[in-house]
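Intended use. Records such as the CDP-Glycerol:Poly(Glycerophosphate) glycerophosphotransferase entry shown here are meant for training and evaluating sequence-to-structure methods. They are not intended to support clinical decisions.
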Amino acid sequence: MRGDLVRKLLARVLTTGLAVLAFLVVALTGATGWGLAVAVTALAAATWERRVRPTADGLAESVLVAAGILVGYARRLDAGFDPALAATALVLLGLVLLVGPLRDAGALEIRAANLPVRSWTPLVAARLGDALLVLLALVALAAGLALPAWVALVAALLVGAGWGAVGLDLARRRFRPSPGGGPVGRALRRHQPEFLLYFSAPPGSEYQVTMWLPYLERIGRPFLVLLREPEFLPTVAAATRAPVVFCPTLKTMDEALVPSLRAAFYVNHGAKNSHCIRFSQLTHVQLHHGDSDKAPSANPVSAIFDRIFVAGPAAIERYARAGVEIPAEKFVVVGRPQVEAIEVRREPVTGLAHPTVLYTPTWTGHHADADYCSLPVAETVIRRLLDRGATVILRAHPYTTQNPASARQLARLTELLSADRARTGRSHLWGAAAGRELTLTECVNRADALVSDVSGVISDWLYSGKPYAVTDMGVDGEHFVERFPLAGSGYVLRRDMSNVDEVLTELLDTDPKVAARWATRSRYLGDFPAGSYAEVFLDAARRELAPDRTAPAPRAGASLPSPAA
């Protein structure tokens, strides 16, 4: 997070500073060649800033650079007033002023992947800023070579003609839409999707979608993925063969939600879910992106959905324990299909000379009462594990680096593991090797024991039958297990680490809770046959898509945020 901020600030300073410097050098000195060189450098800085800050507004900098280049051009030609150069200046001014509005208008258009349509206008509109920078660089080159002004004018007019075509098409889409809908809507009608996966979340959250895509595909019915943030489009599209549609506004959602749809699935409680819930003809099903005893797993907002698919009876009890009243008929126990590939180990895993331990610290959460992160005390745990000859797989939550303190603590742990690997040869894993190159299931299958914070990882791990320890980072003390019942079948590490050696002995050597763990496994993950475990979810989803399925009753009394574009 801090590195991101530094890059953005540096890009802003470089772009603005070089644009001002270029204009001053050309306008106030005789060093025209140097001024043009600085202008080109400013354009390069602006290009970098667009990569670091895609929504950066470079209007003032573009005006300064363009003015500096044109003044330098006039000096190079040294021919008095040149009508072609004046016309070039007017065209450039128009382009500079139009780039922002056209880009913003294009950003309001629906975009799609994995569909046989090519909607070129929104894509081109998103690249107009880059096109302007390239044009200014070409004009600067023409000025540096003292080419006739008509060369720059022709280049500017060609770019302007392209922009005019983009503007006219965007205006036509806005003010004279096709009666049959746009190309994306027509393609979706031909595709005849029966359900959609709706997704809106902060950057870095695509794992919430990708964990469900293989199982949605196994339902065997046509579907689509509807996104509300554009940055997820390429990642999600690469993870599925289903159509993926980015809808920036409620109007574009109206185009994407075609009549063949019967159900909508959700993987979180994002605020923009209300934009889709308003389509009352659909059955709305909450899947969640994990099962844990965290407070968000019993979110009262769940009540707005027609169905709530949960892993096991424990999830239903969790809502009741939190005082969230939801009719029993809304809950459907479907297991946690993502665990089907986890290897179940029924024999004891105690007394291993060199055990492999998976450590999965969670992030700090949006609020203090949801901060279960153990990174502030993790160094003690890691050192004790290394002293016991353990190989450590460190798999941090994707949001960890959003907190600068957590990022520093994580870096310290990787330093410890790197030094130990160099000294002992043990194959510790961390960073991309544990978080991207391996799936969670692969990490679970490699490990003999788990140390985790309160998170959904424990529920998935529970399927393996292997022992686990849970960190108590709050002030619950003896009430910790009451708040987080899943910890009752594990070994609880106190925040001050005063019992770390005792816990690691139970975890790796004696494991007295093995019997309790199997009983908890049924409560949290359902008591379904291993050979057909995921079929329980698939059958439940297919029932929601049955043509004779009764339409959901109106959600009277459900409080929804007001939809906003």
